[in-house]
Structure formats: structure tokens, C-alpha cells
Design goal:
Two copies of one chain form a homodimer. By secondary structure, chain A is an alpha+beta fold. Chain A folds into two domains: 313 residues, BirA Bifunctional Protein, domain 2; 100 residues, 3-Layer(aba) Sandwich (Rossmann fold). In chain A, 33% of the residues lie in helices and 22% in strands. The first copy, chain A, has 16 helices and 23 strands. In chain A, a hairpin with a 5-residue loop joins strand 17 and strand 18. In chain A, helix 2 crosses helix 13, helix 7 packs across helix 10 and helix 7 runs antiparallel to helix 11. The longest helix of chain A has 21 residues. The radius of gyration of chain A is 28 Å and the shape is globular. Chain A starts with 12 loop residues before the first helix and ends with a helix.
Chain lengths: 549, 549
């Protein structure tokens, strides 16, 4: 086996990816869904190590986003929701790819991919080249459809959510009323989402069923910030190193910058190096219609788009979008339920403003609401009336919050962590001779198994008994694995492949057979340096906990 | 508010349930899905406190079932799988309710519920009584259907899984090959499942989208146990108090008994009292066609079926089924992929058996396989040939494992924990006068919030600063909540309703203003006894961790 390292840009990335995929299957990270039935395109299962990796990711995100913050609470909504939610969000009308049908082969193809798709009847030609007559492009909605209740009819159609975000918008007021929060605050959710992708690809990267971690962070409109704080800070005026910043004068641009920094920091805390992460500010023509700005956090996977010089430019791990008040406004219009909040500070501040300031802020707020209503398709007269009413309410302290949305994918991050961790080097075998090894250099916090426990020999009851004791001691505190099969070197190799950061070996020294001062000490071997420490069993839990947290 | 306690069987349970539902909504445990759009029948969302409760349940199950066991590994499979899985499992053909259509009102009704369903046109009459002409009953499949890929056709139909179990069977061999396990061992999975129930009811108890925690525990067929151990132990011969029992001679009846005991113990460890739990052994005519036996663990909710004397008999939290080798055998037949394992101990033991013993065991094993093939619909001749081949393979150490399946519902357990915890009593108000209080007496391990931190007064910066310090100290270790709003008595009441077991108050004693020896101590108030302890801040983390674990 040649040495391959993903630290080295000269290695062909396709080959690297093959090795990663093979390891994932061999060691139980990722399987093809329904493999015994030939699989199902775009669906992937997680095996024993994969589940633990995913659980660690979700737990770390949940802790960072909710437990360690005062201003974010959690939600867990259903995958199937009322279909009007997807009408309000725009997904029913616009979440689609243009498709053409070929009248000859009866196939259906993405209109923008005809020139790269082989013809099913004559694979040597592309669909663009073949002589089958094609229909005009028609939109194909990417939401999975089903029907709820015993009657299959149009009115009972429902969708599998294509994103978790809309559930948060739909429950915004309910959460606000029960959670003792006020704007600015956020609602976080982790859960499955589904997109009927026409061409799932890049392993688990673009699949049809995936898991999202989304935060909707609700903030004041800039006009309210200005009324309260006197001005809106420019992004470069805010101090991102302050753990408890005064955010009173933060507008959406400051909050966007804050969340991008927070999220980048979080990815780095999981072991993704800054050099493989890209902060990509979308250009105006790339933005979704509802977004004022969007920053993608990209990771340089061993696949994906390349720049002119052939360098990988990275694929999206997370998008952080400034979605304005678009979504809540849509749900207010479609449900008829108010999505406004009352902001006492705004009301108090408003009364103290000079009349020309009042007039300027009111006018700006009215314009932003008018823009929304017109974009939403309201007739101009009605739009003006609605914007007038909103502007009037604004002066009394009422508004629809704006939102910053950091939206991350669990599966993409799991894949990024595996790709980043994958490495090959050499390690000494039983006789001290160097042999190649595959090692996953996971940051200990994300590693599926934190520690493996080995008795040096399987056939010495005293060693086995002691090893079991150590295993039972560690197990309540961290995911541990016991292995007594085969030579110790082979056991190390197996744990290296699984990414286990520490291996504890119970040997004759532990039993006090060689030197009394080593009794009840064990060897702790670190995965990357392969360094071995001698640690007292009584200090082992603390020693390891400090390293894996 | 009258005093209502669910400890007291004389309280009308309907009233109790109303109060529980109201509390769940008011405090953010459970909301109706898509509420702003009028809701969607059979779907429920979990609010900030509800998510934490559910996460605790899932984490505790995962720890008990995987981390603390050597013989169980995890899996996380997709909700949408290859449709043949549901053909093999029997769900496509038999997972249905019989329905009739009324030609007059165009409604569709469960054939077995006509006499209890009001007519949509004339609600004073039932559907059975109305004069609309009805169709013959037709099976209505309870699986949600969708199509995968761009073409909506029969061959692209897929289903939302109605249970997580089948994914485990489908991936059985893949997991076995990667996880270094051998029979007996189990595969555990937590995840969403969907059933298009005709009549969702009892709040979240019977909903259309729910979360399951399922273990498939694979064991040797009894004939293999007998070949290896000489005999199969009767269930009453096994010692359930032994933490590491020798299971060599355990047949399926012993394993079933073991898992029922394990699961009952787990529910008790979450605070559900033995008196409200029922171990119900299904009668032969109640068993699913694949099951040899099934034990339901019931909980006495404040709703549901009653016995002849009017006592609640309990509703199902979990079913523990002995499913034989039915599922794996079906997947072997439908996929053409072998589901057999090779058992070296069986092979070794077999060679040492007396010929008449060999012949008896072989014949019994052959008969059980023949029964399966005939039940599965194979023609008798083919069934005999297949059974012969299986019996021959058995003598060489090969068999399809049998399975014990403890299958629990996350949502049902969450509801049981809330119902069990709900209580009303009296507590002193600000002036020492008794006032009614609602309290959720959660076992601390399941409580959504473990500790609340209060500065005695909001307007004393020294108190607030100290309280924030204590809060930051606790937060990395447990879910904590900071509250400085309103009188301290009101803050206690709010935490009582949320089920928070401990409240920590920072007062003037903490600052050392009253007695120097009380400096840097806090008041810890326990929810149920309302007793207050004085604890040093330096010892607070340990003090609380010991109580909440």
C-alpha cells in the first residue's frame, strides 16, 4: 500500500476518496441503505462507529448552541407538517429543477444536465446528442410527497420537510410565549430533512435523506436598533473576542458577522483546520430571493469544484443566511396569525426620539415592509396599506423580527471529519519493523470510541480480570471498547483505523509482577504520536477525561 | 384550583389529563404541529422543555442499551428504504386496516369502528346507522407512500418506515461483519417511524409520526444452545440478579425473561413506580403471526382501557417480542443474500454429540425451518428441500439467528413520565401563606432542566454577578437555567412546573454580608420536599452531580 495522506495535495483525490469510502464500509461508519436489495440511490445508513460519530456531532452542536447560551432554546418538530407551510415558504411553487422527458427512451432528465447525461439507450451519446424527441422543460418539485389520512386526494397531500427551518418559523410565537425569551434570541433544531434530488452524488454529501442542525436567530430590524441605540454599528466596529458583548447596537450585518465567526470557531474546535475551511460570501446574483446576504462555510473535501488553477475550492458544510423578516412575514400572511413581537425598549425609546428621526426611521421601516409586500405579490394599493399599518405599529413597539440562520448538515460534517481525519503512515509491528497503518486522526471530542482497553494476553485470567475492572471503571464516563483478540499490535491497528485516541493496556507491571511501584498502573498509548504513558488506575478517569473534553 | 393528584385514583382522570395537556402547552413541552395553520391531525412538536426531556430519554436508553453493554452496537438507518424490505417484512401485504367508503358522504371509515363513528352529514347518527350505501371493506395500508426519483410511477414507490426494526434486519450481516460481535449480540437503533393511523388519539400516545427505540437481540436457536450446553435452561432456572450471567444454556425463553426484567428495571430507574407498570404476557391469539411470545410493558396513563371493575389496565410503553428467525429468513428469501451465521462453538460441539442426540436436534431444527417455509408460502416440495438444506448446514455450524426485540416508544415514554410526574399540592407564598402549586416530580435524570440559579434580587449588581458566576460554573456539567425575574417564590413556582429538581439562590449570606462563615455558600432548594440546604459554591458541582445522576 502506497502512502497516501490527505495532508498532501499532490495525491490524487479520487484515489483518496476510494480509500475513505472503503474504510467507512469496512469499519462500520457508513453503509449503503438497503444494501442487500441492491441499495437505494441517495440513501445511506450509519453503522456502529458512524452513529457514535453522528451522535457526538449533534451533542456538541446542541451544547454549543443551546446549553452554553442563554439566548437559544430547542425545538423538535415533525417531519410531516401542514402543507400550507410549504406554500408560505415558497417551496411548493419554486423548490424545483427544470426537467425534460425523452419521448423515445421515456427517461426524465435535468434540463441543465442534458449534455453530461448519457443516453440510456445509447450510452456512448449524451441525452443532448441523441435523436429522441424531448419535451419542453417542466419544473420538477424536489419535495417528497405523500398523503395523510385514509383518502389519497389532492387535498390530503403533504410533504416531507425539505428543511427543518420552516417548523421553527411556524412555531415562533408558541415558543416565544412559553420560553421566557425576548428578541434577540434563537430557536435551534436538529432533525431529518428530505430532498428528492435528481442526481444524488459525492457519497453522503448530496443525499436524499439527511440530517440538519439549524438555528433561527431572531433579531430586531435595523430601524428598531437605531431607535434604541441611536445608531447601528458597522460590522468592523464589533468586538468578536468579547464573550459577553453588548449587542444593543448590533444590526443584521453585525449579527451575521458574529454568527459566521462563532460557527467557524466551532468547526475548528472539532479539529477541522482553518486552512481547509473557506468563508465564502455569496455574490448578489447567487443569493436566494429572500436573503440579504449569505455566507457559506466550505470544507475542502477530496472532491468537488476546482478553481482555474485546479485547486479544490471546497463544498458547503453550512450556510449562514440573513433571511430578513421574509419567512415570518409569509407565515403571518398565509396563516392570518400575527408574527409580530412587542418590544418595550423600542416603545420607550421611540417616545424620546426627535420628530425628524422618528419620521426617517418610520419611513425606512415602511419602505422595507412595502418592498416585502410587493415582492410577495400583493397588489400595490393593498401593499401600501399594509406597509402603512406596519409602520404605524412599529412606532408603538411592534415589528416582525429579522433572522440570521446558521444551517449546518450533520452528514456533511461527519464526512468532512472522516476525510480530514484519514491518514496513512507507518507504525512498528510486533517485531519493531515499520508497517503501513491507516489512522483516523479524529479530535478526541468527536471520536466514536474514546478509549480501548486491552489485557496484554487473553489467556492470563489475572490480566483479563484487571482489564475488565479498568473497562468497567471507564465505561460510565466515556465510550469504551474492550478487545482481547490477537496480538497487541493488531489491536492498536484496529483502534487506529476507528480513530480511537487512547488505548489502555493492562500488563504484568499492572499486576505488580515486575516492579512493585508499577502495581496498579497501566500503559496509555496515544494514537497520533504513538507515545506511551504510565498512569495510575486511580488517576485514569481524570487523566482521560481531561484529554477527551 | 382544586387539589388534583394522580397518586389518588379517585380523581377523574379526564380532568387530570386536561390539566396535563394544558401544562404541556403552557410550559413548552408539547405543541400541536403546524398550530398556526389549524394543526395537522396526529402530529405533535416538542418545545424547549419537551426536547430536553426527549433527549434525556434517548440518551439514557442509548447508554443503558449500548454503552454499558459489551454485546450491543448501534445503527442509524434511513427512514426511506428499498420497498422490497416492506414486501419481505409483510407490511406491504398485511399492515392494513379494513375500510369502507360511504357512497353518499364520500367519507372513508374503519370497518370495525362504524358503530362509534358519527356520520359527517348527520352527526346525531353513527355511520353504521346512516342510510348511505357502503362499499365492502377493503384493506387500507397504514404505511405512508411516496415516490423516489423524478418519475412518479409504481416502480418508484417507496414507504416511510412504519418501524425501525426492519433496517436492523436488513443490515444484520453488514453490522456483524464490521462490529467484531458474535451471536448472542444485539443492534440498537433510535429513530422516527410513521404510521398513517386512521384515528390518531390520546394526545401524543397514538400519533402518525413518532420515535422508536428498538433493539434486535440475536440469539442462537434453541437446538444450537442444546447442542453446545447440553440442555436449554428453563426461564425459572436463570438468575436475573447476576450482573454477568453465563448465558451459554439460555434459550429464547430465558432471553425473553431476561429482557423483560432488564426493561422493567430501566423504567423503574427513570422514576416510574412498579405499581403503575404492568407486565402483560400476550395470549396466543393476540400474537403477531411471526411471534412466539410477546410481553407488553404497560403504564397506567390517566386514559385508556379499563377492566371490568373500572380500573385502568394500562397502555403499551414497550413490546418485547420473541420473533424467532422469521424476519431474517424473510430477508434471506427476498434478497437472495444469506442471513446465516457460522457458529464455531456449535460446529465443535456437534462433533462430540451422540448420534441419537444429533439426529433428534437435526430433526427438530429441520422441522422449525419447514414450518417457516410453509408459513412463508413455499410449495411443500420446495419447502422440504430448503429445510433439508438448512438442517444439513446446521450440523456444520450454520444457522439463522433468532431474535428478541424490546421495542419502545420515545413519545409514549415522555408522556408517561409527564403523567407520572404531574402533581398538585400547596407551598408557602411570599408571606408564608399556603398557595396551590403544580409540580412535575421528575426523577432528576430525566428532568429537562437540572438546576435553576437565582440572584435573590435583580437590582443588586453584586448578587447578580455572583449568580452569573455560579450559573457559568454549573452550565458545562448540567442543563441549567438562569432566572432573575420576579419574587423568589414565583421563580420557584415556575421551576416546580418545569420539573426542575434543584434551585440555587445567591443571597446576602453568599456575599458574606450577614455571617462571614456563610460567605460563598448558596441555598439549594429541593423541589419535592422544598427543603433548603446551605452548600459551599466550591462543592456545588459535586453536590448536584451526585443527586442528578
Amino acid at each position: 500500500m502506497a502512502q497516501v495522506t490527505n495532508k498532501d495535495a499532490s495525491v490524487p483525490t479520487a484515489d483518496l476518496m476510494d480509500r475513505i469510502v472503503s474504510l467507512c464500509k469496512r469499519r462500520g461508519f457508513i453503509y449503503q441503505s438497503s444494501e442487500i436489495y441492491g441499495g437505494i440511490n441517495g440513501f445511506w445508513d450509519y453503522g456502529p462507529l458512524g452513529v457514535e460519530l453522528k451522535n457526538n456531532i449533534k451533542m456538541l452542536w446542541w451544547h454549543a448552541m443551546t446549553r452554553l447560551r442563554d439566548d437559544v432554546v430547542g425545538l423538535d418538530a415533525t417531519i410531516i407538517m401542514h402543507p400550507r407551510i410549504w406554500k408560505a415558504s415558497g417551496h411548493v411553487d419554486t423548490f424545483s429543477d427544470p426537467m425534460v422527458d425523452c419521448k423515445k427512451c421515456k427517461g426524465r432528465f435535468r434540463a441543465d444536465q442534458l449534455a453530461e447525461t448519457p443516453c440510456p439507450l445509447k450510452p456512448s451519446k449524451t441525452v443532448a446528442e441523441c435523436d429522441g424527441e424531448k419535451t419542453e422543460p417542466r419544473p420538477f418539485n424536489l419535495m417528497f410527497k405523500t398523503t395523510v389520512g385514509p383518502i389519497e386526494s389532492e387535498e390530503n397531500v403533504a410533504y416531507l420537510r425539505p428543511e427543518t427551518a420552516q417548523a421553527i418559523f411556524a412555531q415562533f410565537k408558541t415558543v416565544l410565549e412559553t420560553a421566557r425569551q425576548k428578541v434577540p434570541f434563537g430557536i435551534a433544531q436538529i432533525g431529518k430533512a428530505f430532498r428528492n434530488e435528481v442526481t444524488p452524488r459525492n457519497y453522503t454529501f448530496r443525499s436524499r435523506e439527511f440530517e440538519q442542525m439549524e438555528l433561527e436567530f431572531f433579531i430586531r430590524p435595523d430601524e428598531a436598533v437605531e431607535a434604541i441605540a441611536g445608531r447601528v454599528l458597522e460590522p468592523d466596529e464589533i468586538d468578536l473576542t468579547d464573550p459577553r458583548p453588548d449587542t444593543t447596537a448590533w444590526g443584521w450585518k453585525a449579527w451575521l458577522k458574529y454568527w459566521v465567526a462563532q460557527r467557524m470557531r466551532w468547526y475548528e474546535s472539532l479539529g477541522l483546520p482553518r486552512a481547509k475551511l473557506v468563508e465564502y460570501w455569496q455574490k448578489p446574483d447567487e443569493l436566494a430571493h429572500y436573503a440579504k446576504a449569505c455566507v457559506d462555510i466550505l470544507f475542502k473535501f477530496p472532491f468537488g469544484k476546482r478553481d482555474a488553477s485546479g485547486e479544490l475550492i471546497g463544498e458547503e458544510l453550512e450556510g449562514i443566511a440573513a433571511r430578513s423578516d421574509f419567512d415570518l412575514s409569509q407565515h403571518q400572511r398565509f396563516s392570518g396569525r400575527p408574527m409580530t413581537v412587542f418590544d418595550e425598549e423600542l416603545k420607550n425609546a421611540w417616545g424620546k426620539l426627535a420628530p425628524d428621526k422618528q419620521s426617517a426611521l418610520r419611513s425606512r421601516y415602511r419602505q422595507s415592509r412595502l418592498d416585502y409586500y410587493l415582492k410577495a405579490g400583493e397588489p400595490p394599493e393593498k401593499a401600501r396599506a399594509l406597509a402603512d399599518a406596519d409602520a404605524e405599529a412599529f412606532t408603538k413597539g411592534y415589528y416582525i423580527p429579522h433572522v440570521i440562520e446558521p444551517s449546518a448538515g450533520v452528514d456533511r460534517l461527519a464526512l468532512a471529519l472522516i476525510c480530514n481525519a484519514y491518514d496513512e503512515d507507518t507504525a512498528p509491528d510486533e517485531h519493531g519493523n515499520p508497517e503501513p497503518r491507516v489512522v483516523l486522526r479524529f479530535q478526541p471530542r468527536v471520536a466514536p470510541v474514546k478509549v480501548a482497553v486491552f489485557p496484554l494476553l487473553k489467556n492470563r485470567p489475572a490480566l483479563v480480570q484487571k482489564a475488565r475492572e479498568v473497562y468497567e471503571l471507564l465505561r460510565p464516563h466515556m465510550k469504551a471498547f474492550y478487545d482481547d483478540a490477537g496480538a497487541i499490535g493488531r489491536r492498536y491497528r484496529r483502534q487506529d483505523e476507528a480513530g480511537t485516541p487512547y488505548c489502555v493496556t493492562i500488563d504484568f507491571e499492572t499486576l505488580g509482577e515486575k516492579a512493585p511501584e508499577l502495581r496498579d498502573t497501566v500503559t496509555v498509548r496515544e494514537r497520533d504520536s504513538m507515545r506511551q504513558d504510565r498512569v495510575k488506575i486511580s488517576e485514569l478517569v481524570g487523566y482521560l477525561l481531561e484529554k477527551i473534553r
